[in-house]
Amino acid sequence: MAIEKPEYRVLSTANGIEIRDYQDHWLAECNVEDINDLRTASSSAFTRLFNYISGHNEPGQKIAMTSPVQQVKSATGWRVSFVVPSSFKPEEIPVPLHSSITLKKVVAGKFAAIRYRGSWNNEVFEAKTKELMSALKSLKMKPIGEVSSAVYNPPFTPPPLRRNEVIVRIS
Fold first, then answer.
1. Theoretical Cys-Cys bridge with 7: which of 23, 84, 97, 160, CB 3.0 to 4.6 Å?
2. Does any domain span residue 1?
């Protein structure tokens, strides 16, 4: 069975990036504070988010695993999120019971993404972010908001087979 991902349409490719048009979708987002390391923050949040989709929510409902797991740097650490399956209407999304998890709507729009294989960590995130920003600048496109790291595969997937991305909304 395929794991659900947010729906998007590729509008164009240039300078090593894809310009995508995403549909509205929802995230279950966990704040991890006082951790600067991307992988440590992701591991910390993963347990809480996994508990949420395993039924630690109101009404105690199991939720299908989706992809990617996303990480966004915040002023106090990281925000790590799972995509809520599209089968849920907004008013039907189970309410998280852990105070660090919130539900967030991602409004449809255009995003730029750079895809890469291998491991992901702070250094790779920073390097791929610079690469994405440089490509956007050369295309005369403006990023809006925060850059997100997106990890599509389980941690036991060999690095050469992993799909990772760095994504940002564009104007």
1. 23
2. no
- Distance of alpha carbon 140 from alpha carbon 100, whole angstroms: 37
Sign of the CA dihedral with 159 first, then 160, 163, and 165 last: positive
Question: Which CATH number do you get for residue 16?
Answer: 3.20.80.10
Percentage, residues of the chain above pLDDT 90: 89
The DSSP string of the chain is -PPB---EEEEEEETTEEEEEEPPEEEEEEEEES---HHHHHHHHHHHHHHHHTT-EET------BS-EEEEEETTEEEEEEEPPTTS-GGGSPEESSTTEEEEEE--EEEEEEEE-S---HHHHHHHHHHHHHHHHHTT--EEEEEEEEE-S-TTS-GGG--EEEEEEE-
